[in-house]
Hints:
Elements: H1 2-24, E1 26-31, E2 41-45, E3 51-57, H2 63-66, E4 71-74, H3 78-88, E5 104-105, E6 114-119, E7 130-133, E8 144-150
Parallel strand pairs: 1-3, 2-8
Antiparallel strand pairs: 3-6, 4-5, 4-7, 7-8
The protein binds copper (II) ion.
Amino acid sequence: MKILSTAILLLGLAAAGQAQAADTCKISLKGDDAMRFDLKEATVSAACPSITVELVHVGKLPAAAMGHNVVIAATGDVDAVNRDGIRTGVARHYVNKDDPRVIAATALVGGGERTTITFPGGKLAAGGDYTFFCSFPGHATLMKGKLTVTR
Ligand SMILES: [Cu+2]
């Protein structure tokens, strides 16, 4: 009986650990036709071997009119990354992926579309000041949020 309860306890701990990992290693955002993300902040762990960013465009407008992406950068770099990204144009999804200030960037999607990207948690520093935003021209003012990074 003692062995059985120990086994149940261990199973419970394993499940809790997985739930925690899933929470801190993935960011799920929704973008809409009103130029908004559903979240103003998100938290990930720098210890995640891989962090997944998922973006679902829940609107109906095409990417050319109301495209959304998710770009992650240090908060102090956001304005410059956004400006340079817009300059790269729609064909490059309004983000220069060769820019070392771009920590991660999804594709640009339109209404009804979904995109994901993964990057190593090691690209973020625990306690650092990061922002996620959409680099479609004019969107970053409304479409941005704080990315908190834990250990
Ligand atoms: Cu957008």
